[in-house]
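Q: My labmate handed me this sequence with no annotations at all. I'd like to see what the chain might look like in three dimensions before we decide whether it's worth expressing. Could you predict it?
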Amino acid sequence: MHLNFKKFFLFFIPFNKKKYSKVNVSSRTLLSRLFSPDSQIIIFDVGAHRGQSAKRFRKLFKNAKIFSFEPFPAAFNQLKLLKIDNFRAFNFGFSDRTEMRNFCVNKGSQTNSLLPLNKSAKAVWGGNDALTEVARITCEFRKVDEFCKVNSIDSIDFLKIDVQGAEFKVLQGAHELLHEKKIQVIQIEVIVGDTYEGQKPLSYYFQLFESYGYKLKMICDLVEIDGNLVQADLFFTSV
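A: Here is what I predict for the chain of 239 residues:
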């Protein structure tokens, strides 16, 4: 008997709603599923800006120890003023090596990056004027592996990286921890639209984490402009 698999699949799904469903999960919802509210987890908030993520993490996990890293001095000056428990702020960023590096400062400080803006950046983001470079300054950058060794941190429960296109550099500096699977959950914001010079495509991160034996858990918080995907958050887990 010839079976039309497409028709069979469409017929089969409605009777298995518990197994098959359309999902649109936010990163906040996913995190609440991955960790219990009272768990004593270690969180690395890389690209902390003014502390928006740190405040959100504290609300989700009351006993978490939060380490926030922000190289841009103006943003760090606000970050360090956060009044939350078990929180430490550091005025440097993470990259693939330890050194002072040129840092691109844009009109919208949330778009600052180690990578310079692409000429098409504004157009990709619907004419967003925040994507206008205004200066280049020198900032300190270190490696995640080295920081953990110096501070006797054996493992990281949750690593969030939001560094505007330079996420791959942070991961290169965490090679040892990734190789030994000492980071349990990783969230990276990936810029898909052509925004920064040298940014990596989604496929790069899929292949990188596969090489370390990590699995894709979820794709969250998709951003679409004019029918095109420009940004997404990827979650990878060690198990």
